[in-house]
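#onboarding

Welcome to the new folks! Below is a worked example of what a typical request in this channel looks like: someone posts a single protein sequence, and someone else replies with the predicted structure as tokens. Don't worry about understanding the tokens yet, we'll cover that in week two.

Example request:
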Amino acid sequence: MQHPAFDEFKRAFQAKEYEQALASIETLQIEFPHSAALLWHRANCLEKLERYIDLPQALEAAIAKLPEHLPARIMRVEYSDWYIENAFPLLEGEDEADEDNLPPEIQAVREKREALQIELDQRNEADLRFVLEKDAHHAQVHFLLSNFLRGVEHHSLSAEEREQQAAELLDRAIALNPKNAD
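Example response:
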């Protein structure tokens, strides 16, 4: 027999009642604070609720307990922009600032964002390659890594090498899932 709160979580999640599903998970976390699965279920609820700003912390907690859980690593890549938003939110007036004459505090936070982006790019590539090591037939990850290589600015490979790898990954993604080639 499962815990009644977990049954309620499953019912609510399947019914797309994500607030209730999250409440059930958080109730269970009080009783079972060391449960890795609950950390992952919480991240899923946050994603469904579009509480993206809360995802970085939830995903890091889940991955710390479940380092081999491939869906968590994929989700971390897909929502990596929220790590930057979480760490360095938009400053007041930043979106209206004169790009040719930025105040020092805006320039400083943008430099921090750029440094974090480089770290996240390295982590994202490592996560995607880790998933492919574990599941070489994961079409979505081939596609994500292809797009990553085409869009990354700072990389040890030349632009030509990245483009060649990206094309090969995209071809593999299409071969693995030809019905979803777009």
